[in-house]
Amino acid sequence: MTTPDALPHAVFTGAYGDTATNGWYPAQAALEQGYVTLWIARPSGWAQQFSLPAHQVVVKSAAQRITLVAAGRSYPILADPAAVSRALGLGAAQVVGGMMGNPAAASAGTAGRAMNQLGAARSFAAGGGYEFLAAMRASGGRVSRLGYGGIAAIGCGVALLTGVAVLVVTAWALNL
């Protein structure tokens, strides 16, 4: 009879954003036997970027991204890199629709952005993001996570503050 591993293990699959080439490459962050190993697919094949004890790797996660910080270097991995360009295009459609006075086009851009976020969140879950974060925490790694709820709350808070500021400035200007 074999015993299960005492140490947690998990894999996050996504795409590494290489700032030197501005390209996205398939990547896997694997946590096995207390070590985090980052593999990135290059034209010549899979290359190991690093393999370090979990407690030496900082994991920062926001929305569909996990960034591994190892030996002072950041390695951003997105679950769905195409979601970024889709978001930019849908945001532009929303702005243009608003500028043209076409509420249907602006609403379609907003709805499209929401669906894009849902798809990116689904990709994060399917790529093993939540399991990887939980396993890293259990292995003693430093993990921080800002999910879509937190990002939406920040956005709503900024919008609310902007609205209040506009009202205050307008009331002040009318009382001059």
Describe, in plain words, how this protein is organized in 3D.
By secondary structure, this protein is α+β, with helices and mostly antiparallel strands. The chain has a domain at 10-80 and 127-174: Pleckstrin-homology domain (PH domain)/Phosphotyrosine-binding domain (PTB) (PH-domain like), CATH 2.30.29.30. It has helices spanning 82-99, 103-126, 129-138, 148-174; strands at 10-18, 23-32, 35-42, 45-53, 57-62, 65-70, 73-78, 142-146. Helix 1 (82-99) runs antiparallel to helix 2. The model has no long low-confidence stretch (mean pLDDT 86).
Mean pLDDT: 86
Relevant CATH superfamily of the domain at 10-80 and 127-174: Pleckstrin-homology domain (PH domain)/Phosphotyrosine-binding domain (PTB)
Structural class from helices and strands? alpha+beta
Helix content: 40-55%
List segments where confidence is low: pLDDT < 50 over at least 5 consecutive residues: none
The ordered string of helix (H) and strand (E) elements is EEEEEEEHHHEH
List how many beta strands DSSP finds: 8
The helix count comes to 4
Largest sheet features: 8 strands, mixed
What general form does the structure show? elongated
The CATH architecture category of the domain at 10-80 and 127-174 equals: Roll
Task: Indicate the radius of gyration in whole angstroms.
Answer: 21 Å
Tell me the name of the CATH class of the domain at 10-80 and 127-174.
Answer: Mainly Beta
Percent in strands = 25-35%
Within the largest sheet, what's the order of strands?
A: 4-3-2-1-7-6-5-8
Separation, N- and C-terminal Cα atoms: 84 Å
If you consult CATH, what is the topology of the domain at 10-80 and 127-174? PH-domain like
